[in-house]
């Protein structure tokens, strides 16, 4: 019997599971409060067939400088049993991504949401600030003071910047070189997007093609970069994402401009070939395709593409 056919040994550790789930709940509440379109989609999914939702992953963006990078968020979650699952590098974007697998918390078979469902994977990206131009580095370092990254998780739950808001001039200058860095400088540790676990839905939404058609019929704009359905090379990982809505954001000195905020994603993980003939109600997460796909992730990131005027 292969190792993938066995359930994982419980890996939850450190402190209260209830506390960890409450942290996620507050991160989610902040994300939904700041992103009305994402909230509308989130509510619509649950309104169809009284669907119960589970999450595939929560994604964040960081800046690798002065302790504000991946570690500023991951250290907290690793204390609770999260483990590095893998990494992706995007040289053209000057970006590094790590994803983290959750601890095996005790979730009932019909558990859902963050209260008693399976914990989400974490995906944390960091801009490689030292690879940007000296001018862009100077802009970022002007706002990010040493040791501030220790408050990353608190910042994510509150939806407040640790640093001062950038000026519109600094933001637009940075966006010309790195839209990713500019987005992070103004939005901070607010969750960049969540992904529903399509394969855990019980009704019509358990087919990602239906999800696509439903969202298009409702008039939501979907990310078409690389195709609306982003399929891994092995065909076992399929993703779609919305286009980030554009919201009014106040910059320093009272300047208000319209910029991209966060978005929402749907992820379907199919059973690995050796488990494809198992009854569907017996397939667990560890029977399914794990990890992420470089090309698909690169396309999904374009959901926050900025306007050409930058």
Could you explain how this protein is built, in words?
The chain is an alpha+beta fold and 310 residues long. The chain contains 10 helices and 10 strands. It has one domain (17-304): 2,3-Dihydroxybiphenyl 1,2-Dioxygenase, domain 1. The protein is 31% helix and 19% strand. It has an 8-stranded mixed sheet, sandwiched between helices. A two-stranded antiparallel ribbon has the order 8-9. Residues 1-9 have low confidence and may be disordered.
Order of helices and strands: HHEHEEHEHHHHEHEEEEEH
Average pLDDT reading:
92
User: If strands are numbered along the chain, what order do they take across the biggest sheet?
Assistant: 2-3-4-1-5-10-7-6
- Termini gap: 56 Å
Q: What Rg do the Cα atoms give? A: 19 Å
Structural class: alpha+beta
- Return the CATH class: Alpha Beta
